[in-house]
Structure to design on (227 residues):
């Protein structure tokens, strides 16, 4: 089946690291994505990882993939107030071209 | 520099009154998608166009239709909106090049209210 699960809320202090977790079900997924949604805006692609990788780093963002456990995480270093948003994990459904299955999103709140 | 544009930003309609949401793109992408996103839920794919080929998701209600008159424009028609259709509707595009990592570009969405 197709299912992506995330915790709904995370609160961190400015300057700390944030870790947002996600589990997925389609073991054939080739790509996994993190999207960011700010209030009143559409989804913006933050980063992605190919399924044969276990880590990808992009500036303050680190993506870790545990394919055995079907677990994906996004770490944001030195979290800023501008990082406050909803973060969506998505898997590329293996059964169709570029059909993405999204999680319900994790709302990240950054406080001083 | 907006690349995927959705109009209007907010739409209010009456129960049962047909409504059309529009999406345009300047990216010349051949694939366009419509997602429905209800409050605190995951965006859910309704259907997509691959060029002129329409691809409906199996669980998309018949009440939802779509038109794509040309590469740049795509419309979502809701024939008889119910209260349960109130949601954010997101349009997205991608360029199907044959590689598996085709990134989706999203518009800002249309928030639909049904009274």
């Amino acid at each position: 089946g197709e299912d992506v699960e995330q915790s709904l809320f995370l609160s961190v202090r400015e300057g700390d690291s944030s870790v947002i977790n996600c589990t997925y079900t389609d073991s054939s997924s080739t790509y996994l994505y993190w999207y960011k949604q700010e209030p009143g805006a559409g989804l913006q692609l933050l980063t992605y990882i190919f399924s044969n990788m276990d880590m990808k780093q992009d500036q303050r963002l680190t993506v870790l993939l545990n394919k055995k456990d079907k677990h994906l995480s996004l770490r944001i270093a030195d979290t800023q107030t501008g990082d406050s948003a909803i973060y969506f994990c998505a898997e590329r459904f293996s059964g169709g071209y570029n059909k993405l299955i999204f999680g319900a999103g994790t709302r990240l709140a950054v406080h001083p | 520099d907006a690349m995927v544009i959705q109009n209007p930003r907010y739409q209010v309609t009456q129960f049962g009154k047909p409504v059309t949401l529009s999406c345009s793109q300047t990216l010349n992408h051949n694939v366009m998608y419509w997602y429905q996103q209800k409050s605190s839920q995951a965006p859910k794919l309704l259907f997509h166009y691959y060029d002129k080929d329409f691809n409906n998701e199996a669980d998309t209600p018949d009440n939802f239709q779509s038109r794509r008159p040309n590469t740049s424009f795509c419309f979502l028609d809701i024939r008889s909106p119910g209260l349960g259709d109130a949601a954010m509707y997101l349009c997205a595009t991608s360029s199907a090049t044959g590689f598996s990592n085709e990134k989706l570009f999203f518009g800002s969405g249309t928030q639909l209210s049904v009274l």
Q: What stands out?
A: The first strand of chain A starts at residue 4 and ends at 6. Chain A is about 0% helix and 55% strand. Chain A has a mean pLDDT of 90.
